Amino acid sequence: MSTPAVVLRRIARAMRGMNDLAVEKISQESRQDPFRVLIATLLSAQTRDPVTHAASTRLFAVADTPQAMMALSEARIAKLIYPVSFYRTKAVHVRACARKIVEEYDGRVPATMEQLLTLPGVGRKTANLVLILSHASRDNICVDTHVHRISNRLGWVRTKTPEETEHALYRVVPRRYWAEVNLRLVTWGQNVCRPVYPRCGACVLADVCPKIGVTGQGR
Ligand code: SF4
Asked: Which fold, 33-134?
């Protein structure tokens, strides 16, 4: 088994030319605006990247500040973000988040994990990504289902939930890579180490990966 540092460097080289992730794109397009990164991350849950990016772009064309967002109705937000998954629930969370930011945080997205977790619909994945992308934190690892799955397949961790994985990864990944783990493993998970039928034959990690739990491979 290879070390996380070696694996992450290999992925960084191999992912050149692959599409940027939707929330990364929104972050770049908005100059790391914490509000837009927060909302785009909420929309991205269980939704394909092109759908997330298009829905975020439509929504931000109408409202790109907490003040403007809380002035919209939930029904309007739902219509703008359709067809992201759970669009009605997400619309409720988006509006409630905007309102809480205005009323309790003076219109600014909080910059601590503790405060971010008080926002409706925000869990550790979203909070970590906002801290990394918009508050330039190097002290967080953002773990979603891709990071959770691939970390287990590689044998870095043996965990049952993304939250367990996050805490385990702080112990096995060198600190200088923490902020990069999400971008690299999510890109890898979307393109190569897919949930079902991972493309091990086309994977630059095939010689070092124990492929734990992999039962079938795709092309
Ligand atoms: S070798 Fe297979 S299981 Fe391992 S990282 Fe690559 S695609 Fe995933």
From this structure: Endonuclease III; domain 1 (1.10.340)
Domain made up of 4-18+140-202: CATH architecture = Orthogonal Bundle (1.10)
| Residue 172 CB partners (closer than 8 Å, separation 6+) | 4, 156, 157
Return the closest-CA partner of residue 120 out of 141, 136, 103, 143. Answer: 103
Report the atom number in ligand 1 closest to the C-alpha of 211: 3
- Shortest-distance Cα residue to atom 3 of ligand 1: 211
Answer yes or no: is the C-beta of 8 below 6 A from any ligand 1 atom: no
Q: Which of 191, 196, 203, 208 to mutate to test the pocket of ligand 1 (most atoms within 8 A of CB)?
A: 203
Please answer whether residues 13 and 40 qualify as being in contact, where contact means their C-beta atoms are separated by less than 8 angstroms: no
- Residue at token pair 């619909």: 121
Tens-level pLDDT at each residue, the chain (219 residues): 579 999 999 999 999 999 999 999 999 999 999 999 999 999 999 999 999 999 999 999 999 999 999 999 999 999 999 999 999 999 999 999 999 999 999 999 999 999 999 999 999 999 999 999 999 999 999 999 999 999 999 999 999 999 999 999 999 999 999 999 999 999 999 999 999 999 999 999 999 999 999 998 887
- Sketch the domain layout of the chain as residue ranges: 4-18+140-202, 33-134
Task: Please give the biggest Cα pair distance in the chain.
Answer: 54
CA distance 23 to 44: 8
